[in-house]
């Protein structure tokens, strides 16, 4: 049996939302404990240059997350390298069981487990992630000024990414397995009217082709779903836009969710459907999915947890 540890505030997740919650909860003298999870630092650790974090013209994603971790620690947040495998929210104090065997109990919980971009699972896709293959146009589109790029997908995410990328790219090829898009009508209309976008119907991504030294994308091979014919399209960037999946495994059957599993919070709040449980960042944000908005929600969650605990103690 592992040990049992109690904390006033348990923060689950270590992206911008989790670390910011750690900073604010520490400053409120709540002595928070943060469990990093399976991917310390979250999605930003898989990106390279970040150019939209205020105060940094350019910063490497992993470096930014190390700085956030150091900041939270400096404020007094205890950071634990562990993975929460089960979360019982039926009674307070809440109980979290972990991969290490440690049981954590807490008077309040801040969920900051984030979301994960959906990927196709191709070996070549994995090879070039961060080096020409991306799942975030607003993060990485800027690096493809004047280049030809490819977007994979056919829903709102894909159409929005393709339209956004025309701000930078000379040409955007939208590869879709069907011959009609599943996006909103107004977005489809904009896409069809944009001279920089060329839809390629009935095709799927077969392989990303590129160089090894330096690592970089040169083209994609796509396959016709009916004939099986494979063609090669020149491209410097490949954006996989088949949606995001919130990392809601711990709470999907307990908390209210919507929009494909994102945790519902009250308007202008991080409060969930269970008092004392707060959700921040991409776990709850199906709209913006930016580091800076996640950090803002982490701040909100810590302040609301402080207020909640003060009311319980009164």
TrEMBL record:
EC numbers for this chain: 1.8.1.9
Any Pfam family from its record, for instance, is Pyr_redox_2
Domain of life (superkingdom): Bacteria
Name this protein carries in UniProt: Thioredoxin reductase
As cofactor, the record names: FAD
Tell me which UniProt keywords the record has, alphabetically: Disulfide bond, FAD, Flavoprotein, NADP, Oxidoreductase, Redox-active center
The encoding gene is trxB
Do the record's keywords include Flavoprotein? yes
Its assembly, as annotated, is: Homodimer.
Q: Where is the FAD/NAD(P)-binding domain?
A: 8-298
